[in-house]
Structure formats: structure tokens, C-alpha cells
User: Which sequence fits this backbone?
């Protein structure tokens, strides 16, 4: 059995969810012929379905977390670009990171008024820390919400050994990219993402790492 690339798996499940939403808008018929069976419909859409009698359907937490982990995993030959505003106490400062997805994992980071470059990845990569917590099972789906008009999943995160993540995170229900992370340790931080994207590792984009 072969495994789909994480990005293809995400696209496949999003397509299935779109089909499911379309079907719920159509009037019911007694018999429908020629339908193509779709397996594994218990994706993110399961959060909004109800069972007969009005009982809520179980949250498909595993599927959601797989999508979050896949969306936070950079594809080959790419450069992750994050831009956010970080608030600690009464101080808010811009944060920006570029890091390549393959060796030597060169990066350039701007935080708290300082700029740094290096290799081996940057330890302040908030999205990478969130992905690690999702993969370790230390993040759980807390429910559906809307964040600044964007349909989102609310995640609760506990057990992190760093101060970056214990608290709450919001990820988009559309592409599973991070929207905000609110931490509780060390006085707390609020990380509001303004951009989260993967750039092709072209010669021009590689200059962003320098």
C-alpha cells in the first residue's frame, strides 16, 4: 500500500469535505442512482454534522490533527515564511522568519528588534513548535469558532516543555494554517500571524535568507 504525499492527502480530504457540503444542500431523494461511494467522510466536516435525534456527531480529532501537521510541514524545495505580531506584557513587536525546508536549513529571523541568520533551523519557529505538539498528542481540538471572520478550529495545548505553546491556538478550517497562539507560561505571549506561506526555493527567494 502506498501513502499519499501529505499535501495530496490534505487536498483529497478537502475535496471530500466540499462534496459532503454540497450534498447536504441538495433535497433528499428516496433513491439515488449512479453515486460514486466516497470512503472516509469522517474528516473535518464531522464536526458540524448531527446524528439522528439531534445528538452531536463525534469530533474527528485524528483527521483534523493530521491535516494540521501536514499543513505545517514544508514541502520539498521550499522556504517557509512566517510573519506575526508578538505581544508580551505591554510590548508588541514584529516577528518574521524565513527558513528553507532542506539541508542546511538556512534561516533568517527578525524578532524583538534584532536580526539573525544561521543554519539548522530556528528554535523560535512557532509553527514548527505547534506541529511538534500536534504530532506528540499534546494538542486537542477544543471546538469550532470564528477568528476575525475566518472559520477556525480552537486547539488546547498542554505539556509543552517550552514557554511557546502551552495555552490555546487557532488554525484556519480552510487551509489549517495558524492564525493565533496564546500562551500561558512565563507571563504569556500572544502571537498573531499575518502571513504563513511556502515560497519556492528560487535563487531570488534564497536571497531572503541572507
Assistant:
Amino acid at each position: 500500500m502506498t501513502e499519499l504525499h501529505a499535501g495530496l492527502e490534505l487536498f483529497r480530504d478537502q475535496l471530500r469535505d466540499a462534496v459532503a457540503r454540497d450534498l447536504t444542500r441538495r433535497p433528499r431523494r428516496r433513491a439515488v442512482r449512479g453515486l460514486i461511494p466516497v470512503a472516509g467522510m469522517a474528516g473535518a466536516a464531522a464536526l458540524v454534522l448531527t446524528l439522528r435525534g439531534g445528538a452531536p456527531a463525534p469530533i474527528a480529532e485524528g483527521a483534523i490533527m493530521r491535516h494540521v501537521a501536514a499543513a505545517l510541514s514544508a514541502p520539498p524545495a521550499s522556504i517557509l515564511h512566517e510573519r506575526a505580531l508578538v505581544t508580551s506584557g505591554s510590548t508588541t513587536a514584529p516577528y518574521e522568519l524565513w527558513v528553507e525546508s532542506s539541508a542546511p536549513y538556512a534561516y533568517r529571523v527578525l524578532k524583538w528588534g534584532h536580526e539573525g541568520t544561521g543554519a539548522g533551523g530556528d528554535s523560535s519557529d512557532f509553527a514548527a513548535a505547534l506541529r511538534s505538539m500536534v504530532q506528540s498528542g499534546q494538542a486537542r481540538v477544543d471546538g469550532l469558532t470564528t477568528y476575525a471572520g475566518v472559520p477556525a478550529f480552537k486547539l488546547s495545548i498542554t505539556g509543552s516543555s517550552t514557554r511557546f505553546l502551552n495555552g490555546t491556538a487557532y488554525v484556519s478550517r480552510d487551509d489549517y494554517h495558524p492564525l493565533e497562539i496564546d500562551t500561558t507560561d512565563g507571563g504569556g505571549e500572544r502571537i498573531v500571524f499575518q502571513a504563513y506561506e511556502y515560497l519556492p526555493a528560487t535563487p531570488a527567494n534564497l536571497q531572503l535568507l541572507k
The CA atoms of residues 73 and 98 lie 14 Å apart. Residues 1-12, 18-58 have pLDDT under 50 and may be disordered. The first helix runs from residue 6 to 25. Strands lie at 78-88, 91-100, 107-111, 114-118, 139-147, 150-157, 167-172, 178-183, 190-200.
